[in-house]
Amino acid sequence: MPLGYDRRLFILAFDHRGSFQKKMFGISGEPNAEEARTIADAKSLIFEGFQLALSDGAPHDAAGVLVDEQFGETVASKAKADGLILAMPVEKSGLDEFDFEYGSDFGAHLGRLRELSAWLHARDRKFLFELLVAATPAQLSSVGDSEQRYEAELRPGLMVGAIHALQEAGVEPDVWKIEGVDSPADCERIAAEARAGGRDGVSCVVLGRGADSAQVDSWLRAAAGVPGYVGFAIGRSIFWDAVKGWLDTSQDRGAAARLIADNYRRFIDVYEAAAP
What we know:
This protein has 276 residues and is α/β, with parallel strands linked by helices. The protein is 50% helix and 12% strand. It contains 10 helices and 7 strands. A 7-stranded parallel sheet has the order 3-2-1-7-6-5-4. The longest helix is centred in the N-terminal third of the chain and has 23 residues, at 33-55.
């Protein structure tokens, strides 16, 4: 199968596990059976918002979900049955360095994962790789401990270098999930590296990073007109307030699903308005 992905891709990402249960539910350690059911129900609520967005006109050929196996198995099964774009994580949650979920037993578990996930359609499985670049103390010090300067002056170059290093190590994703940057020129540098060495079909999508809507809008507009960028993978910026409201009963389930749908549709509209 040729490397790369050449269609639009608007992913609603809710594969969060450790951070989700700690920050959303205040659960540390392994959740008990009742807690796990509540977390899984929250994932179902997010999916209901996604389905509502589809019924409102979100593009079926580009709209997709990224959901975990631990709490989202029911969602993944529904998405697969409906022929939707579906992505599932393989990494262990909450680690600073990558390791497979199930560790050395991950290979044996692949059969089960394949039953759940036909990512991007059964005929067209693809590899999505999330690239996160955290600042070291020395890097922050070099820009006067300014997060703003780090974001503008250092992060884009570090991402370009990280992509190159991963490619040299044999990591060959079809789609790179890239933290948002403010400059279209930096988006061009990142996309060029992702497509370097004959990887002409490889694409990038913008991560939301849990930022507020105005910041995410800025990142989407910077990337939308750049060849090599095809969409986004946004999660907390879409669903967090809605799920919180549902949990504290300040809004009912229908209102929460509607807010998720509207947030998701709005980001699609922002991206497509800025795209050629």
